Amino acid sequence: MAAALLADAVTLVLTTAVVASVAFQLYTTFRLGYRLLRG
After folding, report:
1. How many Cβ atoms sit within 10 Å of the Cβ of residue 20?
2. Cα dihedral angle (17, 19, 28, 37), rounded to 10 degrees?
3. Where in the sequence is the domain holding 28, given as residue range(s)?
């Protein structure tokens, strides 16, 4: 039981980390592109 809960917690943390990383990359790319477009 504890192992299943631990696995769920690890999966949640990893998923959150991946989503945050992708979102940050998209935000950085968008901001850079916007700045380039604005000149």
Report:
1. 10
2. 180
3. 1-39
10/37 Cα distance (integer angstroms): 40
pLDDT value of residue 1? 81
pLDDT tens figures, 1-39: 899 999 999 999 999 999 999 999 999 999 999 999 998
Helix H or strand E encompassing 15: helix 2-38
Q: What is the pTM of this model?
A: 0.68
Residue bearing tokens 């504890």: 2
Q: How many domains does the chain have?
A: 1
